[in-house]
Amino acid sequence: MDLPFLQSLGELIGLALVMMLAGAAVAAVTQAVSLVARGRQRYLRAAVEQLLARFPMTRADAAAAAEMALRHPLVAPHSRRASSVRREELVRVLLELAAEPSAKPLQEAFGFHRGAADAARLLRALDGRALRLERARPSEPLHLRQTRAILGAAGPNRAIARIHAEFAGAMRRATARYRLETRVVAAAVALGVVFAMRLDSLELLGRAARLQHAPSQWVGLALSWMLLSLGAPFWYDRLKDLLHLRPGR
Length: 249
Description:
The chain is an all-alpha fold. It has two domains: about 5-35 and about 180-245, no CATH class; about 40-170, no CATH class. About 75% of the residues lie in helices and about 0% in strands. The protein is built from ten helices and no strands. It has helices at about 5-35, 40-55, 60-70, 85-100, 105-110, 115-135, 140-155, 160-195, 200-210, 215-245. The two termini are about 45 Å apart. Mean pLDDT is about 80; it is low at about 245-249.
């Protein structure tokens, strides 16, 4: 018995499965390229460097301080450059670096007239406030207690207040640049996948709809490229759902 509806449904399911597999391939290759190129680390380092360059220090000193900060054991326990950092962690790391006698540029940027001694005094005050807040507000999230401790201990220090004020904007700009780079890579990978598989989505849809005249192959390839380059994360997630690979929450 001829069941055109079931045949069309099967072809649509087949198209969805093909897009899932192709989308998973695009997402996996894009993630691999980003991992090899260390995109997150590069843009985070650039954001911290630009943040420090606004203080009275040379660009070279800002670059060196950013590199040391993102390789500090507090944010990079495996001696590799960190790919993420919180505002409280960055301030803490910069203060610990400024407590070193050789960190003259950071000491001047923070306005520590007595050099490493002022940085060490501020760190002791910070630890004391953090301990008191932990005793007084044990249920409060750790990062909020750390923020309160830093702002309370810093007092009138404008450099620390400025880092707190400008940190979020610097991270947003770094994230936007990283996402743009990732989308460009995903678009290039999707183009290669489409031509390697000759993935003409309009032809497959035409078969499912029983159309006599399918649109141009180039139009179908272009549509497949758009679906993959823009929707690779969606197809990747759908495949993980289908295979029950999504980690539990």
